[in-house]
Design a protein that fits this description.
With about 550 residues, this protein is of the alpha/beta class. The chain has 3 domains: about 50-185, Rossmann fold (3-Layer(aba) Sandwich); about 210-435, Rossmann fold; about 440-555, GMP Synthetase, Chain A, domain 3 (2-Layer Sandwich). It is about 35% helix and about 25% strand. A hairpin with a 3-residue loop joins strand 23 and strand 24. Helix 2 (about 25-35) packs across helix 4 and helix 3 packs across helix 4 (about 85-100). The longest helix has 17 residues, at about 55-70. The protein binds 5'-O-[(R)-(benzoyloxy)(hydroxy)phosphoryl]adenosine. 5'-O-[(R)-(benzoyloxy)(hydroxy)phosphoryl]adenosine binds near residues 313, 314, 339, 431 and 445. Its EC number is 2.7.7.58. It is an enzyme of class 2 (transferase). GO terms for molecular function: 2,3-dihydroxybenzoate--[aryl-carrier protein] ligase; nucleotidyltransferase activity. InterPro entries: AMP-bd_C, AMP-bd_C_sf, AMP-binding_CS, AMP-dep_synth/lig_dom, ANL_N_sf, ATP-dep_AMP-bd_enzyme, DHB_AMP_lig. It comes from Aliikangiella coralliicola.
Length: about 550
């Protein structure tokens, strides 16, 4: 299977090249230059391992040779499914160097998601972590291999004994020779696939080229004022756009700083790492930032080194934003980004007014922003509308999805983000809600239709609609409204059913409600707006939550 070499229209590509945004470098060349300029600086800390740039680059080289020996090369695809360990970066850079296009799956993904990525890309290689699967590992690998004829190789970290023949231990791959190897990945080609949070039945893949991604990495690194002294704690999933490139690990590698990996974002895990490793920057989603603030009040560990906390992935409330500096003793930066491209930051020197009340402004002067009403007409500055964008690092089409007739783009290439925003007079964006049919569970995105498709397959379910319900900590959780055929179905059976289908845990609905009919809109479609109000009413009855703000935003959607 050949991946289209560049999804960009030539007119846009030459504009971005002429403006100096696209430099014709590759993501892996960033590492090669660091190995030359700062070979002894520590690039990654993972548990007890400390890897300097020279060693890092050499390991990447050796791994890319190992991939070559496995007959993997340009235009092949691979799925990376790893936890927060340094093997993720090794695999990522080595595949890019070899010209193999990886799909960056999340560690939380399971059979259902992986299976989909494997069949969509005809991937020849899966790199996974035995710890993710536990006892099921061998059985799951056999199943995935049997169902995907292109999947010739599986490489495992933490692999258990009794693995099938086609499973290779990750460590055995890095022990190859170290002769310098040619770079096969090309700057204007698709480097890898990010995952869309999605709103449809099947998760979509976002092609990102070296040129466009590197531009966002370099600029993000500058906006966050990174340098060789930057010490970044990576506590969110390694492959997510936030922790990979906003500025994330790649921004740190570009600046010559150090990435310290945490296996999870809990204060228990992270506070001692911050103290021991003198972390000065990290990135969190809002619910985790709240837990950190609660914990910091009574935790003796010193967070004194921490200078900047980035919060993004979901809306951070104004009240919570105000507490960051007093409770954690560091500056807040709000980040509103998306795997599809556009990333907005509040700037380090912005007033607290801006930092607490907005989700930032775009990276680039050439990020074109449109805020439109339901008829695609621009709203007045400061008014609420749909956010559309086009720019030097916002993609121009999903993988294998024709752009013509696509609901996701306008005819002239603007991406419809599905977010509802307001833009201030000085260009900052405030996220007010969402138009896309998605649940944002504390930063983890759930496409309603994907879950609905699974639930409708359950015997005895006549119809289903998944909606967001308010949650004090997570912002939103998911509630599945079901019309049963005759009797209510035990919830435990529904959960079991979804797990058996191999769905990631965070996608399993937090609540199920059984109803005889769905409220309908004027045109006869299921009214999710009414269902969201219905669940708010039910919750109001069951516990005394302050739901006012959620009610307002739910109604605006
Ligand atoms: C990040 O990327 P994705 O692809 O997981 O999710 C993108 C969506 C946005 O369209 C928006 O709906 C929501 O997540 N979102 C926010 C937000 N940041 C993201 N909603 C409100 N406030 C925010 N600050 O989530 C992502 C990618 C790069 C950097 C940061 C986040």
């Amino acid at each position: 299977m050949r991946i289209p070499f560049s999804p960009w229209p030539e007119s846009a590509a030459s504009e971005y090249r002429d403006k100096g945004y696209w430099t014709g470098e590759t993501i892996h060349s960033l590492l090669a230059s660091r190995a030359k300029t700062t070979p002894d600086a520590i690039a990654i800390v993972c548990g007890k391992r400390r890897i300097n740039y020279a060693e890092f680059y050499s390991l990447v080289n050796r791994l890319s040779i190992a991939f070559a020996k496995k007959r993997l090369g340009p235009k092949d695809t691979a799925v990376i499914h790893l936890t927060n360990t340094f093997e993720f970066y090794l695999a990522f850079f080595a595949l890019l160097k070899r010209g193999v296009t990886p799909v960056l799956a999340l560690a939380a993904h399971r059979y259902s998601e992986l299976s989909h990525y494997l069949s969509q890309t005809n991937a020849k290689l899966l790199i996974s972590d035995g710890d993710i699967w536990g006892k099921q590992c061998s059985e799951m690998m056999q199943r995935l291999q049997a169902e995907h004829s292109d999947l010739a190789q599986i490489v495992m970290t933490n692999s258990l004994q009794d693995m099938p023949d086609f499973v290779t231990d990750f460590n055995s791959l890095t022990s190859e020779d170290d002769s310098i190897h040619g770079d096969l990945g090309l700057p204007n080609e698709v480097a890898f696939f990010q995952l869309s949070g999605g709103s449809t039945g099947t998760p979509k893949l976002i092609p990102r080229t070296h040129d466009d991604y590197l531009y966002s990495v370099r600029e993000s690194s500058k906006i966050c004022q990174l340098n060789e002294q930057s010490r970044y704690l990576c506590a969110l999933p390694v492959g997510h756009n936030f922790s990979l490139s906003s500025p994330g690990a790649l921004g740190i590698f570009y600046a010559g700083g150090t990435v310290v990996l945490a296996k999870d974002p809990s204060p228990d895990t992270c506070f001692s790492i911050i103290e021991a490793e003198k972390i000065n920057i990290t990135a969190l989603v809002p619910p985790v930032a709240m837990v950190w603030m609660k914990s910091a009040e009574r935790n003796a560990k010193s967070l004194a080194s921490l200078k900047l906390l980035q919060v993004g992935g979901a809306k951070f409330s104004q009240e919570a934003a105000k507490k960051v500096e007093p409770l954690l003793g560091c500056k807040l930066q709000q980040v509103f980004g998306m795997a599809e491209g556009l990333v907005n930051y509040t700037r380090i020197d912005d007033s607290s007014e801006i930092i607490e009340n907005t989700q930032g402004r775009p990276i680039s002067d050439d990020d074109e922003i449109l805020v439109l009403d339901d008829n695609d007409e621009p709203v007045a500055r400061g008014e609420i509308g749909h956010l559309l964008t086009r720019g030097p690092y916002t993609f121009r089409g999903y993988f294998q999805a024709p752009v013509t007739n696509s609901k996701s783009f306008t005819a002239d290439g603007f991406y419809r983000t599905g977010d509802i925003v307001r833009q201030t007079a000085d260009g900052y964006l405030i996220v007010e809600g969402r138009h896309k049919d998605q649940i944002n569970r504390g930063g983890e995105k759930i496409a309603a239709e994907e879950i609905e498709n699974h639930l409708i397959a359950f015997d005895g379910v006549l119809d289903v609609a998944l909606v967001a319900m308010p949650d004090e900590l997570m912002g939103e959780k998911s509630c599945a409204f079901l019309i049963p055929e005759d009797v209510n179905i035990p919830v435990i059976k529904l959960r079991q059913f979804l797990r058996q289908r191999g769905l990631a845990d965070y996608k399993i609905p937090d609540r199920f409600e059984f109803v005889p009919v769905f409220p309908k809109t004027a045109v006869g479609k299921v009214s999710k707006k009414q269902l969201r109000l219905q669940i708010i009413d039910i919750l109001k009855g069951s516990h005394k939550l302050s739901l006012q703000s959620f009610t307002d935003s739910a109604v605006s959607k």
